[in-house]
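User: I'll paste a sequence; please echo it back and then give the predicted structure.

Assistant: Echoing your sequence first, then the prediction.
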Amino acid sequence: MDLIKKINSIYQKNQNIEIYLDMDGTIVEFLFDNENSFMKKGKYLKKRPIMPILNTIEIIKEKYPLIVFKILSCSSTNQMKEEKNAWIDKYIPYICRKNRIIFSKENGDYSDETISTIKATYLLKESSNSNILFLIDDNVKILMEVQKLGKNNIIPIHVTSLLL
């Protein structure tokens, strides 16, 4: 699927489009390690952006200026949430704070049981008959939960689709 072609066909009829971006493994390098070092203070800020994805987002942003980009991410701790915000400030500052939805496990926003459904639940609340919502994510479980909603205006996209 060519995401830009899909966006173009929708944009011709409806410019009320929001694109929600996951962070870890979608726009931010996510390497696993046994010590979970990514959770240590200051480590998140050192993570590299996935430039082919950010470049595609830039193309979409320039070609379709009415599209609103938002972050939809989960964070284990409030410290990591703040570091994610600092990372966004550094690499994609055009996504303002009000358009950054970062759930914190530490705050009780989600649990191990609800992590795969929290984004679908959020998108369902944000959807209306007049808007189109895309979720770009690397987690197939999360994308399947979004697909299960059965809403034509909420479109799950696996991040690899931006690379094709």
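The mean pLDDT is 92. Strands lie at 17-21, 68-75, 100-104, 132-137, 154-158.
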